Amino acid sequence: MMRRYIPTPDEIPSGICECGCGKPTPIARHTAKARRCFVGFPQPYCRGHSLAKKTFHPPLNTKHGAEHSAWKGGRTTNLGYVLIRTPGHPYGLKHKGYVPEQRLVMEAHLGRYLTATERVHHLNRDRADNRLENLVLTVNQAEHMRLHKEPKPSPSAETRRKLSETTRRAWAEGRMRPNHCITP
Question: Are residues 39 and 82 both part of a single domain?
C-alpha cells in the first residue's frame, strides 16, 4: 500500500496566488512535489499563473510588413500554393491576410469574390501555375475531388475473355455460388 505524501507546514502554499494577483488558488487534486502541489492543499498558483509567465521579454523586431527586414513583398508559398498578402480580403481575414493566388486570379476573371465553398482546381496539378487557362472553378470540395480521381481504365478484350473463362470453369467445377463468390 502506497502512503500519501504529507507536506511540512513550510511546504504548504498559503492559498493566495504567488504570482502577485492576490486571487485564491484551487485545491490540488494530485501531488507534484516539484511544483509544490499536494493533494487536499491549496496550489501555489491559479490556473495559467506563474512567475515564469510574469517575466517580460521584449520582442526582437517590432517592425511589420514592408518595414520588416524579412519582407518579401507579401508573396509566399505554402505546400506549393502561392499566397498573396491581401489585407481586407474576406478570405484573408481568416488566414492572416494571405489569399491563395489562384483564388485572386479567378475572382479577377469573374469580377466577384468566391464563396467559402467554391474551390479552384489546377488542370495540370501544378499548384504554382496560376494562369487562367490552367484554372477551373468548382462549386464545392466534392466536385473538386471528383476532378482529382483518375478514371479507371476499362479492361481489355483479352482480360474480359480470361475473366469469363475463369467464371465458366468455376461454375462447372461447383466453386461458384449463386451470390457470385468463388470458393477456394
Answer: no
Is there a single domain that holds both residue 79 and residue 38? Answer: no
Q: For the segment 7-32, what is each residue's pLDDT rounded down to a tens digit?
A: 888 888 889 988 888 889 999 998 88
d(CA 166, CA 156): 16
List the domain range (segments joined by +) for residue 17: 1-48
Return the C-alpha cell found at 99.
489569399
Give the Cα separation of 38 and 30 in Å (integer). 6
pLDDT tens for 167-179 read 878 877 877 666 5
